[in-house]
Please model this.
Amino acid sequence: MKSLILTTGARLLIALFLVFSLYVLLRGHNAPGGGFIGGLIAACGFAIHAFASGVAEARRALRVDPRVIGVLGLVCALAAGLMAWPLGFDPFAGVWGEVAGYKVSSVLLFDIGVYLAVVGGILTLIFALEETL
Amino acid sequence: MNWTLALPILVPFCAAALAFLLRNRRGSGWISVGGSVLSLILALQLLAEVLRHGVIATQMSAWAAPFGITLAADYLSAAMVLITAIIGLAVALWGMAEVGQISARMGWHGLFQTLIGGVTGAFLTGDLFNLYVWFEVLLISSFGLLVIGGQRKAVDGAVKYVTLNLISTVLFLCAAGLTYGATGTLNMADLRAAVAAHPDQGLMTVIAMMFMIGFGLKAAVFPLFFWLPASYHTPHYAVSAVFAGLLTKVGVYALIRVFTLIFVGDQGYTHEILLWVACLTMLTGVLGAAAQSDFRKILSFHIISQIGYMVLGLALMTPLAVMGGVFYLLHHIIVKANLFLVAGVSRRLTGSSDLYAIGGLYRSAPLLAVLFLIPAFSLAGFPPLSGFWAKYVLVKASLDLGQGLVAFVALLTGLLTIFSMTKIWAEAFWKAHPDGRQPRLASIPARARVLLLSPMIALALMTVLIGLFPDPFVTFATTGAEQLLDPSAYVATVLERGAE
Model:
């Protein structure tokens, strides 16, 4: 069922959802938020797109198979956990470094991994349900 | 030492990610096998470390216990991790010959490694909430494995499986929440003292019962077992084998861990219930099996009755009984997984798993007959195979306590197990094939034959080895039982390292 109101509104909403999800992801380091909830918000954005314009369109907008996104998230999280090994830290200990004056850490990489895993996992389920129902 | 505990969990996940990303290539199964080989090496290293130190523990990201996530391994955990790795490797190899390109494209190998990683994580964690997370990992990956490659029937079984297991995990989560609310900690070692010191012991017993039901559903004990026979006979045989070997044992392990380490305050109540549950589980499982005529369904019901023996060891709570329970757990995983693998090969040779529609395997595939006889007799408790020692110890432990009825039930279950195994033997192996087929092992292509038979032969050899030389295994299980009954070393190791 196509609804003009929903498709028009969805364009605005998706952009809002995606930006807000990134905000929540980055905010999560020291305040409530983080990869999990950020991932859920981003998945909501694509889910709205799927409801408004169909799953095929949403898959095209996503460009990558959601399962691959989920597994790449797993890879990011694993890399963040294993990074401590060659440096002699405990498993999953935060590794900090500085790039061009900005502090970067394996903690952020782990959170991004969670974000991608959640986006991939949720969208795999939602797309599959939408396609079979 | 810190990485010794973490790597056995991380490696399967790395293998899972790689196998999934390369799932369209022909060799993606070999990534899974490679990951399993690495896991086996790491599990051996972990066991060596545990043998040297008794108990080892580490904290994720160096957040001190009881606040961070603890990974800890005593004898039981280390042995379970090793056996998980052994079964993982055996089934990964065996699965290469069974799981086709279609299932591989859907990500079968990745899900399989995720499952192994989840099982390993559940055995190593020292934190109740973390255990819950591993249960979720197991549930998600096992659901995927149940559905892939199956038909409508598989989805039906999978839905039953997931619904009932979700109830179990929700109950577990509620119990964990209540525990946290009442004691303020979820670290298992820390909980031992916190639960004992709690003023309201009645509340603690209620929480303990919630854990018992949650884990009991996972372990498929009476009367919560009905999901198991409904789902285990539908997916790939490789999946059934790894489920039969490992999944329910995670529930048993969680029961053992929680009811030796944390909830020991009201043993007259909790362990009495466990004792009845154990007896009824043994009996109903074996009686259910007697009514079945499908190869895998008979074996599925036998899992249930065998779970009863393990719970029996926990319920009696004497050093000998817990030792018997631990020994049973270890021996059973090898035997049961192997029986499912035999069922898989027999299905491939004869074209059906219905015992009345197949036959003639003894004449045409004698090697398969031998490979069936070893685990089957071990399961029934024939000397000198591994199952004999496991049953002997448990029966002796119950007689020592004057529990004659319990010993009788255990022996009766053994007898009825022989009945079912004889039924499979007579129908699938002894009688001629109804259609006159002569299913030979040589009809399987050479590469597949090696992949199918070598893990089965290795597992059968392990069964014989444990049976003929039980001494080191009994000594190991005895120390393991001592650690379980007196977890002071476990508690000290976990909390001391946290205090550093």
The CA atoms of residues 441 and 449 of chain B lie 7 Å apart.
